[in-house]
Amino acid sequence: MRVLPVIPLLCGLVAVDAALPGMARAGACPPPPDHSEALTRLIGEIRAAPDEGSGQALSDQMWALWTDAPDAYAQELLDEGITRRGAYDFEGAIKAFDALVAYCPDYAEGYNQRAFINFIREDYDAALPDLERAIELSPRHVAALSGQALTFFALERMPEAALALRRALDLNPWLSERHLLPALEAGEDEL
Predict the structure, then answer these.
(1) Host domain of residue 168
(2) CB 144 within 8 A of CB 122
(3) CA 126 remoteness from chain centre
(4) Is residue 166 part of a domain?
(5) How many domains does the chain have?
(6) Does a structural domain hold residue 48?
(7) Are residues 180 and 165 in contact, defined by beta-carbon separation less than 8 angstroms?
(8) What UniProt keywords apply to this chain's record, in alphabetical order (predicted)?
(9) Residue 125 to residue 129: CA distance in whole angstroms
């Protein structure tokens, strides 16, 4: 029996059999969990929410769905990236999210999180393709839509920013970014 080495991945320990020459990683990433029914229910509830506090509680439940990774390995990578982002280790976070996207190319949150890091670093051009992919994989990903709106805004692409924000607000009218819509719409008129 061959024992696979355990090497550090960022700050966690993960068995990395893909690093061994001539061997493939044991198993591929499974499909992301299907939370479509729960998301539909939450979108209905958040649209009917009576106040911002209620809306925020429902938004937190949406985040729990989006951050439910396809398997334990993917969850480790996601959690590692989020932890590193929280510690302002953006390079380490990018490495974790790069690994997550490579392992689970059909999991929207890997792209969304990597885009967020690039947004924080003000690399808006790098953030956009990841946001587009996240939205392609999860069209009702409110955070990716609002992130796309903010990225377009930073790039002074007001019509696209307003469109993305309207799409996000249609799904969650309690987003804090809702206050930007009048400015974005005014920017649309100026162009």
Answers:
(1) 58-190
(2) no
(3) 14
(4) yes
(5) 1
(6) no
(7) yes
(8) Repeat, TPR repeat
(9) 8
Q: Give the total residue count for the chain.
A: 191
Q: What is the CATH number of the domain that holds 82?
A: 1.25.40.10
Q: What is the pTM of this model?
A: 0.83
Provide DSSP, 32-59. Answer: PP--HHHHHHHHHHHHT-SSHHHHHHHH
pLDDT per residue, tens digit, the chain (191 aa), is: 333 232 234 444 333 333 322 223 446 999 999 999 999 999 999 999 999 999 999 999 999 999 999 999 999 999 999 999 999 999 999 999 999 999 999 999 999 999 999 999 999 999 999 999 999 999 999 999 999 999 999 999 999 999 999 999 999 999 999 988 888 778 766 54
Cα–Cα–Cα angle for 165, 87, 90, nearest 5°? 65
Inside any domain, residue 123: yes
Cα dihedral 140→141→142→145 (10° resolution): -100
Residue 65 belongs to some domain of the structure: yes
